[in-house]
Structure formats: C-alpha cells, structure tokens
C-alpha cells in the first residue's frame, strides 16, 4: 500500500533529520540492501555446487576403494546442500512464499465428500442452523 502525501513528507523529514544528526549511520543504513546479501549467498552456493561436482568427479577418477566412495558421496552431499541454500536464498530475495507465511502458515484445503461437493465447515453449519431457526424453519 503506497504512502499518502502527508506520510511521504513526514518520512522525508525524518530522513533529513537522521542525515543531519548522524550522516555516517544514515549512509550505512541506506546503502544496505538485503537483496545484495542474498545474491552473495546464491553466488557462494553456486561455487559450492561446482566444488561438489569436482569432488564427485574426482571420486569417480580415484581408484582407492573406500576413498572413492567417500569423496563421491561428499561431493554429492555438497551439491545437494548448495542447491537448497541457493533456493532458499532465491526465495527470500524474490519474496516467493511469503504470502502463506503472512497469512499464518500454509493455505488450508477444503475436504471434499465422496460426491465431489465441498464439505461445509463447522461454523458454516452452525450459521446455517441459526439462520433456519431465526427464519422459523426449526430443524436441527
């Protein structure tokens, strides 16, 4: 939701006062962008992924029995961890998935009866019963 003109003017006045009071702190706060942090994490994860691929290939080339398996498994695990790290950083950087978190968790699904019609929730059934009582239909 955008700020109103009055709110924008107040924010500008607060920023100017902050710059006048402590310009060094104001510059540090203004230049910090969380997306830069997440981009750095994605680059580090990509480099880690490449190192994991190299370790996996090195494990395949080495002919030393258990050392081969250990190096290959370590490379593969490093690749998986770096992929997860990069994906979580990407989601935070782009804001994907924050809608469900803001609404209190994952979206709720409605259960369906065998006939395919959605099953009425508890509150809906209670409201329907109340409506019928007040209209004089009776029935429970």
Automatic annotation (TrEMBL):
Spans annotated as Disordered = 98-140
Question: Would I find rRNA processing among this entry's keywords?
Answer: no
Transmembrane region(s): 42-62, 68-87
Q: Name one Pfam family in it.
A: DUF3040
Top-rank taxon of the source lineage equals Bacteria
Which residue stretches does the UniProt record annotate as biased composition, category Basic and acidic residues?
122-140
* Keyword Ubl conjugation included in the entry's annotation: no
Which keywords does UniProt give here?
A: Membrane, Transmembrane, Transmembrane helix
Name of the molecule in the record: DUF3040 domain-containing protein
Species whose genome carries this gene: Actinomadura yumaensis
């Amino acid at each position: 939701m955008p700020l109103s003109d009055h709110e924008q003017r107040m924010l500008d006045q607060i920023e100017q006062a902050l710059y006048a009071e402590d310009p060094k702190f104001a510059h540090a706060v203004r230049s910090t962008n969380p997306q830069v942090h997440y981009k750095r994490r994605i680059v580090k994860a990509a480099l880690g992924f490449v190192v994991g691929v190299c370790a996996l290939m090195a494990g395949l080339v080495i002919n030393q029995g258990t050392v081969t398996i250990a190096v290959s498994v370590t490379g593969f695990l490093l690749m998986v961890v770096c992929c997860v790290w990069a994906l979580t950083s990407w989601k935070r950087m782009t804001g994907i998935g924050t809608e469900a978190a803001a609404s209190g968790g994952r979206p709720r699904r409605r259960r369906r009866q065998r006939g395919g019609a959605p099953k009425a929730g508890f509150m809906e059934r209670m409201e329907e019963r109340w409506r019928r009582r007040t209209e004089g239909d009776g029935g429970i």
